[in-house]
Design brief:
Layout lengths: L1 E8 L9 E10 L2 E9 L8 H7 L3 H4 L5 H12 L3 E4 L2 H14 L8 E3 H8 L8 H8 L9 H18 L4 H8 L10 H4 L7 E6 L5 E7 L2 H10 L3 H9 L2 E6 L3 H15 L14 E7 L5 E8 L7 E3 L2 H14 L4 H4 L5 H10 L11 H9 L5 E6 L6 E7 L2 E8 L2 H5 L1 H7 L1 E2 L4 H12 L5 E4 L1
Parallel strand pairs: 1-4, 4-5
Antiparallel strand pairs: 1-2, 2-3, 6-7, 6-8, 9-10, 9-11, 12-13, 12-16, 13-14, 14-15
Length: 445
């Protein structure tokens, strides 16, 4: 018996996401025997990027039931079943956190369709749900909505069960609480559930052959050693040991990973591993002050003013620039991006008072409206805070602090921090975290 689930969340800081939509299909003997689908009122804001991705707006969930009103139904539809999801650690964690707020300890056996797709369908470049649907001919007419993604995952599970001639999925689901198969480093990874940080994979000579980061190190490392594609098998054959470096902060993990990949150049990493953001905002101008046009596109050889996660993020910055400096979107936008830029421009009715001469500085101040700030997030242990230092419009460093008085004195923070040779890409990582509401606190100085 399987309960295949997908959730959409409000976004925001790790551990504070709230469910805004849920879909569960109870699947047994090749048939859906029960189902539950509902929007959920998160009793709080929905991040703008989530609204754009899912199409779910605050107005849509205003009259929806709150989580405590659907909790009993979720218990019923998942009872005595294996909790199945695509990247199950995320869905299971968020559902557990919602129940925990109600004082209920929600426990189910779990199964991740990514892990078993990698085992049973080798050779794909990626194993996201969209990629697998395309490769397997699974129709999903409602992507990034709980109903559509959960139905697609049911179809994927059905294919995996058919292909699993050794019946490992059924055996694992029947006999084990933890449905991740064993590998050479299972004892290490079992302790890393929800741990954020870096990992270094070494060969027999002690050389670093791969570096990665994740906010769930267990899940990320397990995937390397359970996958069956050619690159994964080569890594499995050469791996001799793994070193873990917790960071607490996802941003510090990304910053450190980028620096380490540039410095160590591990042979098993791809060039693109250094960049989690592949788009950029570009400006065409005759000089550094007179703007002719903006372009948001994939980063290739040309360096952008700022790196962004996707087109919408870059268009949003360009729209803010136009509002702040009295520029009409139609005069500077690519034709295919004009409608979105105009819509974003209309959202920002109040221009900010920004004193900056160059186009680059104007772009950055439009994106991240802080000259000097401390970006505070969770640390590596209880009671510790991580801090990223932003000064004179640039990333300067990061550090960890246990005591509040240490954070109240900027000189103490700067003396204790690990300094960083800032770059446009590293600064862009800070902006991306700010845009996604990932920081627990921001203090200006």
């Amino acid at each position: 018996m399987y309960a295949v689930i997908d959730i959409e969340t409000s976004g925001g800081k790790f551990g504070e996401e709230r469910i805004i939509e849920v879909a569960v299909f109870r699947y047994e003997d090749g048939e859906i025997t029960d189902q539950f689908i509902s929007l959920v009122n998160p009793d709080g804001p929905i991040q703008p990027y989530v609204q754009r991705l899912t199409g779910i707006t605050p107005k849509m969930v205003r009259r929806a039931p709150k989580f405590h009103e659907i909790a009993k139904r979720l218990i019923e539809v998942t009872e005595d079943a294996v909790f199945v999801a695509h990247n199950v650690n995320f869905d299971y964690r968020v559902v557990q956190e919602e129940f925990s707020r109600l004082g209920y300890d929600f426990q189910r056996r779990t199964l991740d369709t990514i892990t078993h797709a990698q085992r049973l369908i080798p050779g794909l470049k990626a194993y996201g749900l969209e990629t697998l649907c395309e490769a397997l001919g699974i129709l999903n007419t409602s992507r990034h909505r709980a109903d559509g993604d959960a139905r697609a995952t049911v179809k994927l599970l059905s294919i995996l069960l058919d292909k699993d001639t050794e019946k490992k999925i059924e055996k694992i689901a029947r006999n084990r609480q933890d449905t991740t198969p064993d590998h050479d480093f299972s004892d290490l990874t079992s302790k890393l559930y929800n741990t954020t940080g870096l990992y270094y994979i070494h060969d027999r000579n002690g050389e670093v052959i791969f570096i990665g980061q994740s906010n769930n190190l267990r899940n990320k490392i397990d995937r390397h050693f359970l996958a069956t594609n050619e690159r994964a098998i080569q890594l499995q054959n050469e791996a001799d040991s793994i070193r873990i470096e917790p960071t607490g902060s996802e941003l510090i993990a990304l910053i450190t990973e980028h620096q380490e990949l540039r410095k160590l150049k591990p042979k098993m990493n791809k060039r693109t591993d250094k960049y989690s953001m592949s788009y950029g905002l570009f400006a065409d101008s005759d000089n550094d002050k007179d703007l002719r046009g903006f372009r948001v596109q994939k980063v290739k050889k040309e360096n952008p003013l700022i790196h962004v996660a996707d087109e919408d993020a870059g268009i949003e910055i360009a729209a803010k620039y136009c509002r702040n400096f009295g520029v009409e979107p139609k005069d500077v936008s690519l034709s295919r991006q004009l409608d979105r830029m105009q819509a974003a421009y209309n959202e920002y009715l109040e221009p900010k008072k920004i004193r900056a001469q160059s186009i680059k500085k104007r772009v950055w101040r439009s994106a991240l409206p802080f000259t000097n700030a401390l970006f505070i997030d969770q640390g590596r242990k209880t009671g510790e805070k991580s801090v990223v230092v932003w000064e004179d419009g640039k990333l300067r460093g990061y550090g960890y602090f246990d005591l509040e008085y240490q954070l109240s004195d900027i000189d103490t923070v700067k003396r204790s921090m690990t300094s960083i040779a800032s770059s446009s890409y590293l600064s862009s990582l800070v902006y991306d975290h700010y845009r996604r509401g990932k920081f627990s606190e921001i203090r200006t100085f």
